[in-house]
């Protein structure tokens, strides 16, 4: 709006008439008592009015412009100031109002910046949160809360809605009411069923507020899904490990008791039972060794190996060891190493375990057609492998029965086996592929598994190469 530089004439006339009233009263009395003729009284009244009007127009018009300015400022804080005419006092007033207005603008900007930085802080928190007013309505949220709840299901923005429209769990609502009414801290666990079931812990904290009746509350949600899953996995792992150990242990104990008791002097029973006891003890040892390996690898999984190593000597050592072990009719292991196969950034001891487990499985489950090992430079990385550029591929291929598709994703879970009885009979612990997977994770590499029923399986490890 353009600055106003004229005042309302009607208001100015009204202002000029006010101070004329005492003089006009005196002239009326003088006219009435005959001391002045009516003509003189009227002319004097007109002269008084003209003087007053002049005074008002020259002095008070500026104040009228100021009133107009103040009214415009109420509607528009950035309204332009008027151009004043003569009044020095009005000019001082305008200067004071202008300074005040600048101060307000600064305060307004400060308050805006403060609110913005508070929102940024809330948005940077990874956990969803809500601030509720005294009527349990959401007055503020953060990015995590919007991401979690502003879905098609909740239809639209969260601010202004009752918490019950977002979280229907009665325990959470009771905790929120407790915080708002009795200013009590509380926690409640609840589950969100979709899109994927997730469990949250809601911590509700009363807040003192200068608005909303002095009552407000903060609701902070903490995702418990991962922790609960980990707890479950840990419990399953302990149960599985105990079960795996208990079976051979029970067998060793049983035979020991027999040999110490009824078969004490029975050489035939001794000859029959002692080898079984040895096999079971070896099974326990393998299991304990694998469990220890796994926990050692997990312990330093976050520190990646740094040495550049040639994988071929380790691979040959493992092949030699496997060929020496057990039966004579072992399938042949053929190795094809590309001449340009680079070194890998790896830990030799862990590489040894990877080769031992993959080749051991290929020999165990792969049938008589032998095993092919391919060592080559791969120009592309599998999709889950971190980083960019070429890497080293070591693929172990067998020509066995293959693995049904539904098992592939779970093969690297601890104690997961396609056929429990067969694995145990072949001396498997069910931990080999879990060990391989954790070693490749530590190396920032990946393990891929491909299998075709009736044709065989390929387990390939991709490892980073030196820069
Ligand atoms: P295990 O000690 O039982 O061999 P692993 O963790 O090494 O345990 O392997 C898990 C399961 O994966 C095995 O029990 C077996 O069912 C399956 N498996 C692993 N390697 C092969 C393979 N080369 N061919 C077919 N199945 C395999």
Description:
With 467 residues, the protein is an alpha+beta fold. The chain folds into four domains: 1-111, no CATH class; 125-223, 2-Layer Sandwich (Beta-Lactamase), CATH 3.30.450.20; 225-303, Helix Hairpins (Orthogonal Bundle); 307-467, Histidine kinase-like ATPase, C-terminal domain (Heat Shock Protein 90, 2-Layer Sandwich), CATH 3.30.565.10. It has helices spanning 9-32, 38-75, 88-124, 143-149, 170-181, 225-260, 267-299, 311-324, 348-365, 405-408, 420-425, 432-442; strands at residues 129-132, 138-141, 186-192, 198-208, 215-223, 308-309, 333-337, 344-345, 371-378, 391-398, 446-452, 456-464. Strands 2-1-5-4-3 form a five-stranded antiparallel beta sheet. Strands 7-9-10-12-11 form a five-stranded mixed beta sheet, with helices on one face. The longest helix is centred in the N-terminal third of the chain and has 38 residues, at 38-75. It is elongated and about 160 Å long. The chain binds adenosine-5'-diphosphate. The site of adenosine-5'-diphosphate (ADP) has 21 residues, from helix 9 and helix 12.
Question: Which features characterize this protein?
Answer:
467 residues, Beta-Lactamase, Helix Hairpins, 4 domains, 12 helices, binds adenosine-5'-diphosphate
């Amino acid at each position: 709006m353009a600055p106003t530089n004229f005042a309302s004439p009607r208001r100015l006339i009204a202002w000029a008439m006010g101070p004329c009233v005492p003089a006009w009263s005196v002239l009326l009395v003088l006219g009435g008592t005959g001391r002045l003729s009516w003509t003189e009284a009227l002319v004097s009244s007109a002269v008084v009015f003209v003087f007053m009007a002049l005074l008002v127009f020259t002095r008070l018009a500026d104040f009228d412009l100021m009133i107009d300015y103040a009214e415009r400022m109420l509607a528009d804080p950035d309204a332009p100031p008027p151009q004043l005419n003569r009044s020095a006092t009005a000019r001082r007033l305008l200067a004071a109002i202008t300074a005040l207005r600048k101060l307000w603008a600064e305060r307004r900007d400060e308050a805006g910046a403060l609110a913005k930085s508070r929102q940024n802080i809330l948005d940077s928190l990874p956990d969803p949160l809500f601030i509720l007013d005294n009527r349990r309505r959401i007055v503020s949220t953060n990015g995590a809360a919007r991401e979690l709840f502003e879905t098609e299901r909740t239809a639209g923005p969260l601010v202004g809605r009752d918490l019950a429209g977002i979280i229907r769990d009665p325990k959470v609502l009771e905790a929120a009411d407790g915080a708002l009414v009795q200013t009590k801290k509380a926690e409640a666990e609840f589950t969100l069923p979709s899109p994927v079931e997730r469990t949250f812990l809601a911590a509700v904290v009363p807040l003192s507020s200068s608005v909303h009746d002095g009552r407000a509350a903060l609701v902070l949600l903490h995702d418990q899904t991962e922790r609960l899953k980990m707890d479950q996995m840990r419990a399953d792992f302990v149960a599985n490990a105990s079960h795996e150990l208990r079976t051979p242990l029970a067998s060793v104990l049983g035979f020991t008791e027999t040999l110490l008791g009824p078969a004490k002097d029975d050489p035939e029973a001794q000859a029959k039972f002692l080898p079984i006891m040895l096999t079971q003890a070896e099974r326990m040892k393998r299991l304990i060794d694998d469990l220890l390996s796994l926990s050692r690898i997990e312990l330093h999984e976050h520190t990646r190996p740094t040495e550049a190593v040639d994988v071929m000597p380790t691979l040959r050592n493992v092949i030699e060891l496997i060929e020496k072990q057990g039966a004579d009719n072992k399938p042949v292991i053929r190795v094809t190493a590309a001449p340009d196969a680079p070194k890998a950034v790896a830990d030799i001891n862990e590489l040894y375990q990877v080769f031992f487990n993959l080749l051991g499985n290929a020999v165990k489950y792969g049938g008589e057609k032998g095993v092919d090992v391919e060592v080559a430079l791969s120009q592309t990385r599998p999709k889950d492998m971190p980083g960019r550029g070429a890497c080293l591929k070591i693929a172990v291929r067998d020509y066995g029965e293959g693995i049904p598709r539904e098992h592939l994703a779970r093969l690297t879970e601890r104690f997961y086996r396609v056929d429990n009885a067969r694995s145990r009979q072949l001396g498997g612990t069910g931990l080999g592929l879990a060990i391989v997977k954790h070693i490749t994770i530590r190396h920032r590499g990946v393990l891929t598994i491909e299998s075709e029923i009736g044709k065989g399986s390929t387990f390939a490890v991709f490892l980073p190469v030196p820069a």
